[in-house]
Amino acid sequence: MTERNRKIYITTPIYYVNTKPHIGHAYTTLAADVLSRYHRLTGKDVFFLTGTDEHGAKIAQAAEKNGKEPQEFCDEISGLFKQAWKNLGIDYSYFIRTTDKHHEQKVAEFLIALKEKGFLYEGDYSGLYCVGCEKFITGKDLIDGQCPDHKCAPEKVAEKNWFFKLKEFLPQIERLINEGRILIQPEKAKQEVLGLFKQGLDDISVSRQNVTWGIKLPWDEKQTIYVWVDALLNYWTATRQDDRQDYWPVDLHLVGRDILKFHCVYWPALLLAAGLDLPKQIFCHGYFTINGQKMSKTIGNVIDSNDLITKYGLDATRYLLLTQFPFGNDGDISLERLDEKYNSDLASGLGNLVSRVLTLANNLKLQIADCELTSRVPNLEEARQKYRLALDSFQFNEALASVWDLIGFCDKYINDEKPWEGRDNSKEVVGDTLLVLREIADLLKAFMPQTSDKILNRIENGKGDSLFPRI
Ligand code: MSP
User: Does the model's pTM come out above 0.70?
Assistant: First the structure.
């Protein structure tokens, strides 16, 4: 297969439907969308999967609190995720729901296969469970008796579970991670995962006894499949349709650091046990806070991406979310800073340049077809390369910075040469900036698809609305 038509399979986590979508979910999904668009633009055949995680105690409790039947509640919130992604211009290939019958059936088949291979056994679990995390935890994970992420005391459980022989696979997974055959990035995420092997890990439950909202364990219908096993398998079940088989295995899982252990240890172990190919790469991005605080319903600082879109517009929201801090780092978001960045980079930066260049070209009756780059323009191939290198290493803000360097060049060039004064070189100067603007629009395609089209249209037809009014 040539590099051009190579298949690439990219995933986001599937999101819990206990609450409506917020910018945390939008962040990962947007990053996956930009990468997918970027690879598609280079001719690759991308399968981009996202979806919702709908089973388990947490969802059942949320449904009950809202006075709804679980399925009705899941339909509603899953619909909100789909709508949010539509509003954000997310061009996914498939949206999976863990309540899809096809998924449920394939998960059950997967568990039967693990049992037949002898990797499951029956046992008793007695200990603590955090419903918010949907995971078994131990006393040493708690702070003042509470789960530090969910600020509540875990449930004490004593139940019969089916267990998976995780421990059998740990040495092999550790080696594969060390050798980079499961590539975990950035390095600090890899080190965090390698640290888990040193601490020691136990076998994990694959079923729960007292949770009814889930997929029934085929051979023991009093048990439902543990929601994390059900959820991780979405990446595989989504490709168990005739036309999607070829996308397997996963090239890239994008995850937040809260779910690193599940993706880097449990998931590869389940796949090894089933004799399936492993994911090639897992990229773990940072977690962001809002004005220095964790985003939480209790604090009341949850930001809905739809509200940002209403305020700034679709493409501006995409730009702002990915430029706050480097993708692999933790960071902070503040509404004031978003306003400032909108006004400086988009209203005064890109938007202003587009109107300036097109007005100048119009006044000089200049068509792009008649322009040729002069040597005053920086090497555009170098700019493209910088952009590609940044995206290949998930540095979205660096990729955009290379585009903003071109904007900065054009602004300075126009200010220095003052082409409105009718000097001899006016046409050359404006012609250069028109051509650079076309390059800018091309580079923005994956990030800001509508803006890119608008700029290209305006370059061709000279007409169009002004972009990014100041706020
Ligand atoms: N359902 C599980 C994932 C199963 S994947 C097989 C889950 N869902 S979640 O709704 O809690 O989503 C967690 C993910 O949302 C994080 O891993 C991250 O991708 C994203 N984020 C949620 N809040 C975030 C921030 N504050 N900052 C950055 N990303 C955030 O876990």
Answer: yes
